[in-house]
Design a protein that fits this description.
The structure is a single chain. The chain is an alpha+beta fold and 118 residues long. It has a domain of 67 residues. It has 2 helices and 4 strands. A 4-stranded antiparallel sheet has the order 2-1-3-4, covered by helices on one side. Helix 1 runs antiparallel to helix 2.
Amino acid sequence: MNIAERTAPAPAATDTEKHRIRTGVIARQLDQIAPGTARVRTVPVTTDRDGEQRLATWVALDDALGGPVKADHDAHRAARGLLLRMFPAADWTRPHAYDAITGDLALDEPTMPEELYG
């Protein structure tokens, strides 16, 4: 006679595992968008088009050594769109830097060296 055994549900993925998986997905997609991309920087800027102020976003794609990745406008737009979808809670009105190697998204605002504070 077959006896049905109760099995415990599969354990939920840990936060660390989820982070690792998401980092891998983003890295693969960035590599498809612009091969060699290891860092994406976004900076909101105000532009003047025909006398009308508009908010735009400047996007830089860098390789692992910090050099620019050769990519067209569509690749820059796609990289930004990917980050917007993957980090919907981020405040994109502020500059950010995403490290595709570590998976960290951080504010990327300039700071003044401590010795200049007075």
